Each structure stands twice: as structure tokens, then as C-alpha cells.
Amino acid sequence: MGTGSPRGRVAPTGRNSGLRLLREDLALDRPVTQWLPELLTVRAIATVLFRLSQSCGARVSLLGYVVKQVNHVLTGADLAWQASVGPGLTLYHPTGVVLGPDVVAGSRCVLQQGVTLGAVRERGRVVDGRVDSPIVGDDVSLGAGAKVVGPISLGDGCFVGANAVVLIDVPPGQLAVGVPARVVVRRDRE
Prior knowledge:
The protein is α/β, with parallel strands linked by helices. 24% of the residues lie in helices and 20% in strands. The chain has helices spanning 17-25, 32-35, 42-59, 61-75; strands at residues 78-79, 84-85, 90-91, 98-99, 104-105, 110-111, 116-118, 126-127, 130-131, 135-136, 141-142, 147-149, 153-154, 159-160, 165-166, 175-177, 182-184. It has a 6-stranded mixed beta sheet with strand order 3-6-11-14-16-17. The chain has a 5-stranded parallel beta sheet with strand order 1-4-7-12-15. α1 packs antiparallel against α3 (42-59) and α3 (42-59) packs antiparallel against α4 (61-75).
């Protein structure tokens, strides 16, 4: 994975790190007239509450769980506050998106509705020397309904098609489709 590799990254706990991540998630570097109306969308609300749950959970875990549950009720997104997700997260239609607590994801990940990233077994279980949850690289896009469960690595810049069930590692820049998912040649690379 690239220089922004999520391996070993821990959820940010610094004083301004949560705000910095949120600023990048919502692209707040644009003029206020462009991003202010977007704050009222479900995807922005889900992202704000996710980053808030991470900040609160890093200080008082019970508070992190409460904010996570509020997010789940309001937006339908079940995003564990313990998940480590880099800046630039985009949740298109966040209803049904599930992020498990041991998931590690890089920068600028795009998740469509119904995406699941999580462990096969119980939280924290180590399988073959690594935690039983996906590691997602930078600039990865997951289509609607994609499922990535277990110790799977998704390389930088890869794509996972809608409703794919990923059971294998996906190399950087590749496309995985199908049930079970297989890596296919991307047409835009030919």
C-alpha cells in the first residue's frame, strides 16, 4: 500500500485531529455557500456523527457507544467508533453501511449503501498473525451492497463492485466483482 497506508493506524485522539478529519471528509475547504447546504444531507450527518463518536469514544468509551447508536438510529449507518478511518471518507447513501471496530481504512474511501466491512468471528481475534478484519487502502471504492469480511486486504485504488462478496485480497488498482468476488481486468486500464 502507498505512503498513506492504513496498516497500524490508530483512530485519531489529538485535540484537533477529529475536526481535521471531518474538515477533509466534508471538503470544507470550498466556499461556505457550497458546503453549508450539504451539512443537512444524511451522508454529512452520518459522517459528522461518526467522527464525533470517535472523538468521544477516545475519551469515554461509553459516550462513543452512545453517539454511535444515535448515528445508527438517525442515519442507518452502523459505524463502530473504534474503526480507524483516514481522512476524506465519503458515505454515499449511508443507510446499511457497517464498519466493524477492528476495521482499518485509508484516506478517501468511498462507501455506497449497504457496504459491510468487519470480522468473521469475534472482535479482536487474531488469525494468521493479524486481526480478523479488513484492511482497506487509500482511494478505495466499494459499490452498493459489497461485503468484505475477515482478514482481507484491499489495495490502494482498487474497486469492489456492487453486491460483491470479497473472500480474497484485492491488489492495488484492481476491480473485484461477483459472488464470490474475483479480480477482473478494469476496462479503463486497457
